[in-house]
Structure formats: structure tokens, C-alpha cells
Amino acid sequence: MHDNKGYYKLLNLKPGASVSEVKKAYNLMLMKYHPDMGSIAKQLKTIEDEAERNKKFEEINEMCKKLNDAKTVLTDSEKKELYDQGVDENASGYDMSGFDIFEFMGGRRDKGPKKVANTEFHVKFTLKDSFLGRKKTFSVKREVICTACEGRGGEKSTMCATCKGEGEIGIKRQMGLIFSIDRSACPDCRGSGHIVEGPLCSECKGQRYCQKQESVTVTFDKGFKNDDTVVCRGKGDEHVGCIPGDLVLIINIKEDQHFKRVDNHIVTTADIDLYTALVGGTITLRHIDDSVLNVKIDRIKNLREGVIIVKGAGFPGGDLHIIPNFVYGNVKEEELKKVLPCPKLSKNNGVACTGTQGKLPTEKKRNANNFKENIFSQFFRGF
């Protein structure tokens, strides 16, 4: 029997294995290398380096192509017979010499320790905090390995025979030709991986873990944004035989009454009297960091859409945009007369009258009952 292209070796079979053995081996390999549901793919998703993760997924896809080529040849009776004789005209070959599944997974022959799920914590800030930057101390409750029993739960414990100490068992499910394995907590050891024998630990009461309150101080740099995250490595929960989880701080910034952030710019409003708006001058406003800005401005050419911009006064790389709120009350009539010409009365022989200031009229709603009464009263008035 020949295996010139390495198809049998790829499937961990001896040359000449039967078609049923090939199909069974193919399904087992697919459980590992399927890009979406394979066990290896699930492990690769935990790789933090995006470039390395993408590279590994490309290798998985290439491996699936090789498996499909092997299946195409070895499950077809005619092609398989030719291949076993050393003749294969239809399938492209792959040199599997030197291929090591563990080397493919990063040079390790063990699965490596799992990482505990991260702990997420929402942190509230004001827009002023974001502008200035903040150092904040948090009180964090963590689940840590009991130091009294070193995570055994008692004086003595043995590895669970059902899950082999993993704390999980796999349930095999078949969807057509594809198999998947769902993981769930082991019912015998309740996910601990070990079974306590003898007296329970007085500290953790056999639970293997204790609750610990810790203080964590974090510096949030100036300019942080809403929904930004800060990761505190290893400050999450601990599990025996696993890498501790991380504490992930999710930033929530409360909206400000007077200031709004747009990218790295700050937008606010300021009262400007008409005299300053028409001839220019200086306006004063309190910035988000409580500093007082005396902003010198030229006359505003467009009173409807004009916005005053103070360069570099926003977040890093941004500006302060001031929307004018024009006021008349602070301006003396004599000052306005100096800059505004008096309107000339047109000679149109019109009627002189006086106008006063007030509000627009509102339409009164008609009462249905009164309307009916009026109709009837008018009707009977004719008799």
C-alpha cells in the first residue's frame, strides 16, 4: 500500500484503511479543525495578538482543504484503489512529512492552562473628569484560591474520575456529517475537578475559594472617552490550575449641562451682548475645568450661524466652540445708536400707529356642549 501524498498520515491511519475508517477519522479531525466549531478554533479565539490569531486561522483553513482533498480521494472506491497503488491523477498532493499538530498550535504538546473569565465593572465619570484625567481607587471583591487548603477544599482531595480534573465534560452532537462538542460542568464534582475526602477546610468550607476585598488604584489619562476600557491584568477571579481573569473597567461618562464633546472638540454657549457682537470686544466665560477665559473676538458677521472657536482649548487635539447667545438687556441704547443708523421714515402717506410687545394669540378650543346649546337657543328664538 502506498501513501505518496500523505492522506492516510494526515488522518492518522495506516495505508490501506477502509472507507468507513477514513470517514470516521475525517469526522474526528473535523471536530478539531472546523473553522467555526472545531476545538482548536475555540482555543485560537483566545489569542490576544490579532495578527497571530489571523495567521493561525489561515492555517486551520488550509488544513481543512487538505482534509477535504484526502476525503475526496479515499472515500471514492476508484480513486482510492489508484491511490493505494501509488497512482493519483485527480487530487493534488501534500507533503505531510514533518507536520506536527502540536507545533501547529504554537509549539506546545499540552492544551495549556485555561484563563478565567474577565470581571467587568462600570465606572462613572463626569465630562470634567475626562477633560482633566483622574486617578481613582476601587474596592473590588474577588474570588481567590483558599490559602488554607491551597484550593483542595479539605485535607485531602482526589481528581474527579469523570472529568479527569478538568471540571467539564463534553457532550458530542452530530449535525449531518459534522460533529460538535458542547462543554458543561461535570455533575460529579460540580465543576471543581476534584472530590474532597475527609474533613472540609474550615476556611473555605470545602468550596476551595474565598471572597477577598481588594483596593485597586487606576490612573485614567486625560481625554478618555465613553465606553473606553481599562484592563487590570490578573485582578479578576482565580481558579485552581487556571490563569487568573482580568478586571475590565468600562467607562461611563455622564452628560454635562453646559458642555458637549464632539470628537476632541468641546461645544458650549456664552451670552454676548449685541454691542460686542456688532463691533467686537471681549467675552468672558468659565471653562469646563473652572478656569476663566477672556476671549477677544472681532465683530460677528453672521449673527445666525456664527460660532467662535478658541484653538487648542478642547480635548487633546481639539478646539473650544462657543455658540453665541445674543442678549440685549446689558446694552445701553446710546451705544447701539452709535453703531446702528436710525431707520428713515418712508414717504408713503401711511397711517401712524403704535406697536406694543406681547405674545402670539392662541386659538380657543370650541366646547361641544356650548355649541349645541347655542344652536338650539338660536333655533327656538325664532318662535
UniProtKB/TrEMBL annotation:
Gene3D superfamilies linked: DnaJ domain, Heat shock protein DnaJ, cysteine-rich domain, Urease metallochaperone UreE, N-terminal domain
Zinc finger (CR-type): 133-213
Domain CR-type: 133-213
PROSITE patterns reported for this sequence: DNAJ_2, ZF_CR
CDD domains: DnaJ (cd06257), DnaJ_C (cd10747), DnaJ_zf (cd10719)
Annotated keywords: Metal-binding, Repeat, Zinc, Zinc-finger
Entry-linked SMART domains: DnaJ (SM00271)
SUPFAM superfamilies: Chaperone J-domain, DnaJ/Hsp40 cysteine-rich domain, HSP40/DnaJ peptide-binding domain
InterPro entries tied to this protein: DnaJ_C (IPR002939), DnaJ_domain (IPR001623), DNJA1/2-like (IPR044713), HSP40/DnaJ_pept-bd (IPR008971), HSP_DnaJ_Cys-rich_dom (IPR001305), HSP_DnaJ_Cys-rich_dom_sf (IPR036410), J_dom_sf (IPR036869)
Name of this protein: Chaperone DnaJ
Organism of derivation: Vavraia culicis (isolate floridensis) (Microsporidian parasite)
